[in-house]
Amino acid sequence: MMPRQVFVVKVPASSANLGPGFDSLAVALNLYLELEAFRSDQWEVELLSPSLMDFPRDEKNYICQVALQTASLYKQKMPPLRMTVKSEIPLARGLGSSAAAIVAGVELANEFCGLQLSEREKLAIVTEFEGHPDNAGASLFGGVVVGSQIGTEVDLTVLDQIQFDPILVVPQEELLTEISRDVLPQDVKFSRSVQASAVANQLLASLMVQNWKLAGKMMAADLFHQPYRKELVPFFDDVREKAIQSGAFGVALSGAGPSILCLTEPGNGDQVAEKMKQCINGMEIMNLTIDWTGCRTSMKKSGFAL
Ligand SMILES: Nc1ncnc2c1ncn2[C@@H]1O[C@H](COP(=O)(O)OP(=O)(O)OP(=O)(O)O)[C@@H](O)[C@H]1O
Ligand SMILES: N[C@@H](CCO)C(=O)O
Question: Residue 87 pLDDT more than 80?
Fold first, then answer.
């Protein structure tokens, strides 16, 4: 049998908001969604990770749906693919699993319909699917990102001078973003939004100048979403206290929750994670690093999986 060319996509997880940077700030993490795909005569999705087993194995799979819709956006017909998907990203835990799936779907359409999308076009499409540029921008570009959306224009800056070690506390229960957005208010008073925006600006400034104490204070001072979402994450205060006692400088809800993002000064992650493991029970402590690459794609000769 002739070896076939297989398209490979690897997309990092992400943690959005970092506290006050609601729908705008995010960091890419070294947990990955990986897929391999080639043209076939029908859609066939082989799911290789236990967490994915309940997802559709044909074109109804969300990744395929994103690919099909992206292709039709550009008036192209997406060919059926045979593919394998595996993922280390916990689902519906605030680690950007849906954004990673969207990025993978857009890359499939780009490759198999020859769309030749620019990075900016990809960013606009993934933001449209996800509704905000934070997780999707981090998954696409890697690093610590600031995204903004004005109308259909999406802008994104990667802040490669910011460094910290991220530790994620991941509970067993899922929390769908949809539910976690439902508890947010429709409107925010002008004076409160001025303060909330100042807190977000101060967080970024303090991370840039490595003023860890101030950064931690700002992560806790968020007024946009954490005060409303805390009722959905009753263990938040307890985990926060234990993470700070263990040496983290800042703690925030990861994305829409329920996972909790704890930041340590660069180089302290291992030590702080070890201490946290000793005092936090019933939840996974993930000692992670920032992914600085973002989504990567490549071609390879067919492997054993396909
Ligand atoms: N690899 C995947 N394949 C297919 N569908 C997926 C995949 N990953 C995520 N999804 C879909 O996305 C849903 C989770 O999205 P949701 O926005 O609720 O959480 P999240 O993206 O993990 O967290 P957050 O947006 O807070 O970071 C899953 O229940 C599933 O429907
Ligand atoms: N910024 C988003 C991330 C989750 O999609 C939120 O907090 O709802």
Answer: yes
